[in-house]
Structure formats: C-alpha cells, structure tokens
Amino acid sequence: MSARDLIVLGSASAVPTKSRNHNGYLLRWDGQGLLFDPGEGTQRQMSLAGVSASDITWICVTHFHGDHCLGVPGIVQRIARDGVAHPVDAAFPASGARYWERLRHASVFHDTGVIRERPVSGDRAVLADGPFTLVARRLSHPVEAYGYRLEEPDGVTMLPDELAARGVRGPLVRRLQRDGRVAVDGRTVTLDECSVPRPGQKAAFVMDTRLCEGVAELADGVDLLVIESTFLGEDAALAAEYGHLTSAQAARVAADAGVRHLVLTHFSERYGTDDEHRFRDEAAAVFDGEITLVRDLDRVPLPRRRAARA
After folding, report:
1. Known catalytic residue at 67
2. Confidence (pLDDT) at 309
3. Any idea which residues are catalytic in this one (predicted)?
4. Where is the binding site, in residues?
C-alpha cells in the first residue's frame, strides 16, 4: 500500500509567526495528494517538505479568509510551470467563486488546463466516490466554510486457513474476492466463509468553525482528525465570537466521535511557544487517545488499520 500520511506545511492562524507558516496540509493517500487550505508561502513549504506539484490531485479550500487561500496562486502556477499532466480537482465554497477566480488568475502565467473546478454548495456535498469518498460539510463561521471527510470503503481480510480448508488457491482467491463466490470441486465457496470485514480508513479536516452538527458528522469515527484549536480555554468567548474552537472543544469533539488520533493545529499568534504545552494539556484532560500538536513540516502517519471484525 502506498503512503497514507499528513504533511503539515503550515500551522498558524490569521498571522504567521517566526515558527509557524500560514495553513497548508497535504494528505497523501495511495498516490493521491489532497492539499487543504494552501495559505501564503505554501509553495515554498512544499519545497522544504520535499513534495512537488505533481503530488497534488486535489486542492480543497474550506473558506476564503486569507490564511486559508492566499497560497492558491503559487500552487496553481507551479502546477502549470511543472507541466503536471493529471487532473487536479479544486473544491471551494461556491459562494466565494469570485475570490477563487481572482486567486486562480492572480498574475500573468502560461495557464494550465488540468484544474477542474468543483464549487461546493448546500449543507453537504459528495465530491468523489471511487477509491475513497470525499464529502464536504457546511460549518459555522462568519463566512461560508466547509470541512472535508475522506472515507475508504469497507473491505475484507482473507483468512488463509479457511481458504486452504476449502481448496481455494491461486487465481480462485482473486475470483472469490471479485465475485463473492467460486465453485471448487462441485461445491460453492462464499466470500463470507473465507474472510472477515475490514473497516475502511477515514480522515477528516475541520478548520475555522464553532461547534455545530457539521463538525460532529465530519469527525464521526475517523482514524485521523485534523482540527483547528485556535484558542485556549481562557479565551473561549473570543473563540465563539470569531467562529473558532478552543483546544478543549476540539478534544471533546474527538472524544465524543470516537476519533483515534487527534491532530491540533491553527494556533493564534497571541500565544507564544511557552504556551504550546497548554493546548496539549487542555486536550488531554478531555481526550485520552493519541494527540499530536503539530509543527510545520511534521509528518503524521495515519493510525494502523482497525482490526478486522470476526
């Protein structure tokens, strides 16, 4: 299986700091590369992280505040300059189409035809349904904003002992997986007899929002939740006013949703490096699973698959 991991290209909020670039997150998934919220400087951060424009197959913008989209011109122009040949789907709130158009054509360059625009509207939209499902869900922010959820279909894990006991071997195994049944020595062997269900992996990306139904739906049962934690609990009133989450709120979402790995990011510049441990401490008081408080250029692997169900 190809790499499945998150590469953090930036983790600041509205104002970048000396140690944190504007937002940017590349989720690599079996040869696909989903670039979420490319903020200012994302193109350079990609170079530092050792990834290229050819790694990108999706650009997913949650909303059109600058720290989530000002890197779009550089990314699009790099895709064109590097001659990326495969299609690159671009998802963004339809209500911000005029901002997308300005960013997409921000300066003179030899344009590319590989960008396929996928404007999102309504409370919920399915953007892809193939090797994985990609869903956008409306969130609660002063401007229209969406979160994204990527979900692999459930599969099966084959049981070698059961296959051997029924004489299923070689090409018959693949046929059994494809068709759900095969004939062996005059007997029909079914897939259920020789396998157990294997839950598909899931990841969610939740940026600027207050607590709302959309957050809970996106986070439900995911293996990896990348979520903003702009404020500490002492500034919860500011978080509510500006449409953001605190670290403790993000952790409560993870705990209630059965998340396996909680990734905290999008930190306000009002806090210094000496405050960073407080984000983790507040989250750990609520959520007892794995927590990563990211730094720029971190690589966060998806958790190992959940065990197959007998």
Report:
1. yes
2. 63
3. 67
4. 63, 65, 67-68, 141, 208, 266
